[in-house]
Amino acid sequence: MTDIKALPFAFPLRRDAVALIVIDMQRDFAEPGGFGETLGNDVSHVSVIVPDVKRLIDGFRHAGLPVIHTQECHRPDLSDLPPAKRNRGNPTLRIGDQGPMGRILIAGEPGTAILPELEPIGGELVIEKPGKGAFYATSLGEELQNRGITQLVFAGVTTEVCVQTTMREANDRGYECLIVEEATASYFPHFKQAALDMIRAQGGIVGWTAHLDDLLKGLMHA
Length: 222
Ligand code: C5J
Description:
Strand order of the largest sheet: 7-4-3-8-9-10
Radius of gyration: 17 Å
Shape: globular
Number of helices: 9
Bound molecules: dicarbonimidic diamide
Oligomer: single chain
Order of helices and strands: EEEHHHHEHEEEHEHEHEH
């Protein structure tokens, strides 16, 4: 066991039980013309964290620890897309519509892909998820159980939507969860800050927060 400097107190990282889960680092959220931008967001808030997410992924890979990736996406026939999700709000393009990077958030389309810099490598688990949380309507719970994973380190976007939703799902299922501050982003920096504050409040009611350098230092000794 290695203690990682974290808030609200040290995180007891166990190398036989931990995995990194990188949430939705997709072109549709990080590049102009994708889903994030159709909702009116400035995607540079997401693209700026790519180097730090890469450092975190490399740290896990070098330590020989598992890396899991998620992708928010839907079937081409939209059978897993509730009308309440498709019709919400007033985006310039809706999920399933043809955009400059293919159909928005549809499995297999160029815009739905994970950013090339952060591409999964052979053997890494990729979970396609139709919801904001990665446990809903996916095999993630089973896959983690099969691998004996009980601790999850979180990165990805957006902090207060898919990352926080998945972290809360995991926390309720008994996982110890830690989010890396520099490796997560929101289109709204004050939402990111609020989510981090909520997660670690009340004695870590959802989990822990840590800085990237402290986590990487801990991984070297794990
Ligand atoms: C959103 C996500 N924000 N990955 N998706 O719609 O957070």
